[in-house]
Write a structure and sequence with these properties.
Jelly Rolls, 5% helix, single chain, DUF192, 117 residues, globular, mainly beta
């Protein structure tokens, strides 16, 4: 997966976080599955409204983004759970739980490559 440093505007100021882009079917299917705990990056899933935590080994902070990159819903999820279907979401951003705490209203500045769809 391609890694980029994405700027994120939070209430405390701008931060720059490493994010991998899941663009292919295989990348989207795998995500963090079977990954050892404590990776130091996030994964961005374009064209996504819902995720699952099957075969996960660690909990995630999950952020649902609108088309402009604004976080419209934030959730912490445990392995083997299914997340809510957020109809307004265009992207889902995942980080290992507690790594980079973001919140609804924060804005991810998306300079994403074109999707494979």
């Amino acid at each position: 997966m391609q890694t980029r440093i994405l700027p994120i505007q939070t209430r405390q100021g701008q931060v720059y976080l490493p994010v991998k882009f899941a663009l292919t079917f295989t990348q989207r299917l795998k995500g963090f599955m079977f990954t050892k705990p404590t990776p130091d990056y996030g994964i961005l899933f374009p064209n996504t409204r819902q995720i699952h935590m099957f075969f996960m080994r660690f909990p995630l902070d999950v952020y649902y983004l609108d088309q402009a990159g604004k976080i419209i819903y934030a959730d912490s999820m445990e392995p083997w759970k299914i997340g809510p279907n957020i109809r307004e979401a265009h992207y889902v951003l995942e980080f290992p739980q507690g790594l980079y705490p973001l919140q609804a209203g924060d804005h991810v500045i998306l300079h994403a490559p074109k999707t494979a769809y």
